[in-house]
Design goal:
17 helices, single chain, seven-stranded mixed beta sheet
Length: about 425
């Protein structure tokens, strides 16, 4: 242990000396350090870009043919994909996609978390090129950040593609850039986790990347190291020191993390291909690929295409789509369609949508009380709303969540009391 600490202190000293030299002596010093200190000779194609930063370039067969359909994807779907109506481009070329993924020293973020492995991938013809940068120890972080900055600045128009990158990876990089005295170059960003949750929540056990690969892409990784183990594997490698042979467990495990990182990039490409197939023609895609048609329709920008998607989803019985169509009908003053659509929600399997059933019952109760003056129907739907509210509360309590807001119960009681009073004050029929 003491020997490892001494070796790390020596690497820090040498790295500091390197950073203070001019460019010519820098190259000589780095060559010397690479030869004398960094004896961890990872197998080819790994090469040293810096004494403490390794690099490899892999050329893989391109899978994810849907990515080539970018030109056929309507601009409205790009707005859904980028989760923005302001920053989404009107069109996107395959050469403007930069896939990236990080492995970090912690899974919760925070100032002490560093990225020790970064992968970038882009598509050239029928080939996926993946470039990986591996940090061997903390003193080399400046060189790693320099490599990442160069990747991000290659193509100013390139949109980043990640899986949970907006919430995690980008935040890590932004803080590490600041600590290195740099500004993080902001880019348009497609986060596949967000669009995956939109399309497949409730249809798959979870929206983790590997579950999506298994359930949607029918792709099973063999011998893969779980990403959650990456931090402890890197720390194990640091404890062993750079003198570890590639055949030793610490180095082998770290190479396994690198392969996991490579597979993540591959999986992103294929997943994006599937998503773009759906976006190019949702109605046609629905015949082949299951997805939440209603959620996609509701996320689509306003216009005729959105209405068409909603209507198709409504015909298929999606309650969210039916409720949105009812809202539109109400805005247009089409009360007949409004009631029919709400009735369809109540006739469907409410177990999957108690909230919408509750809203539909309240909407119908209000309509019959105020628009039709049909107090008996208004009472019927109000009591149905009470029943659904009770079922919703029981369901939420079973899942460990709080019940519905008390204000709903108070409003329903007030409505029922008002309707009852009106019924009692009705003139008897003569």
């Amino acid at each position: 242990m003491a020997g490892n600490l001494k070796a790390r202190l020596e690497r820090i000293r040498i790295q500091g000396a390197v950073d203070k030299t001019d460019q010519a002596s820098d190259r000589l010093s780095r060559a010397h350090v690479t030869e004398s200190v960094s004896t961890c000779a990872f197998p080819p194609p790994w090469i040293h870009l810096d004494p403490l930063v390794l690099f490899r370039r892999e050329l893989l067969p391109f899978h994810g043919e849907g990515v080539t359909n970018l030109q056929r994807v309507p601009p409205d779907f790009l707005k859904v994909l980028f989760r923005s109506t302001e920053h989404a481009p009107e069109s996107l070329a395959i050469g403007d996609l930069l896939f990236f993924d990080l492995e970090t020293s912690g899974l919760s973020g925070g100032a002490g978390t560093v990225a020790f492995l970064a992968a970038f991938g882009d598509i050239h013809g029928d080939t996926l090129e993946v470039r990986q940068y591996l940090l061997l120890d903390y003193p080399g972080e400046g060189a790693l950040i320099e490599c990442i900055a160069q990747e991000l600045n290659r193509n100013a128009k390139a949109a980043l593609v990640s899986f949970n990158g907006k919430a995690f990876d980008i935040q890590i990089l932004r803080s590490r850039f600041i600590l290195q005295g740099r500004l993080f170059p902001e880019r348009n960003h497609i986060d596949l986790l967000g669009i995956s949750r939109l399309l497949w929540t409730g249809l798959v056990p979870s929206c983790s990347q590997q579950v999506l690969e298994v359930k949607l892409l029918k792709k099973q990784r063999k011998g893969d190291i779980p990403g959650a183990l990456a931090p402890q594997i890197w720390f194990s490698f640091l404890r062993e020191g750079l003198g570890s042979c590639p055949s030793e467990p610490a180095a082998q495990d770290l190479l396994g993390v690198c392969n996991h990182n490579l597979l993540d990039i591959q999986g992103m490409v294929e997943l994006l291909g599937l998503i773009l197939k759906i976006g190019a023609n949702p109605l046609l895609a629905l015949e082949t690929y299951p997805f939440n048609m209603d959620r996609l329709a509701l996320s689509w920008p306003e216009g005729e295409q959105r209405l068409g998607l909603l209507q198709e989803a409504g015909r298929r019985g999606y309650p969210r789509a039916l409720y949105e169509l009812a809202r539109i009908a109400r805005q247009d003053g089409n009360w007949e369609a409004y009631c029919e659509l709400l009735e369809q929600i109540l006739k469907g399997p409410l177990q999957a949508s108690l909230v919408l059933g509750l809203r539909a019952s309240i909407g119908l109760a209000s309509y019959y009380e105020w628009k039709q003056g049909d107090l008996d129907r208004a009472e019927e739907y109000t009591r149905r709303a009470f029943s659904l509210l009770e079922a919703l509360g029981a369901e939420r309590n079973r899942m460990g969540a709080k019940g519905p807001p008390p204000s709903i119960n108070i409003k329903l009681k007030a409505r029922l009391e008002r309707i009852t009073a009106k019924q009692q004050n009705r003139q008897p029929f003569l």
